[in-house]
Design goal:
alpha+beta
């Protein structure tokens, strides 16, 4: 899976959210799940991949990540629920 990815992790349905950007979403989410990633996700047990978007341009991915981080929480929840209404952990689907 090449490209750049903006991803959203959650602690649980409607729980704590984390938005990140990476060029290897499978590796990065695995780091969060193994708790070797930054202290915010480790501290708040944010390991469930609930949304991911792919970009071909790193600048577009970074701009999207920055924009999403400024969104109201309700907008983030709506985005997740539109593409993943059951809040399924998408990690297995991207790591297959």
């Amino acid at each position: 899976m090449d490209g750049y990815y903006v991803y959203v992790l959650a602690s649980q349905r409607n729980g704590t959210l984390y938005i990140g950007v990476t060029n290897d979403v499978a590796r990065r989410v695995a780091e969060h799940k193994a708790r070797v990633a930054d202290s915010f996700t480790r501290k708040h047990d944010v390991t469930k991949l609930v949304h991911v978007e792919r970009f071909t341009d790193i600048n577009e991915a970074i701009a999207r990540e920055k924009a999403m981080k400024k969104w109201r929480r309700a907008w983030k929840l709506k985005l997740i629920e539109q593409g993943n209404p059951t809040w399924t952990d998408l990690y297995e689907t991207i790591n297959a």
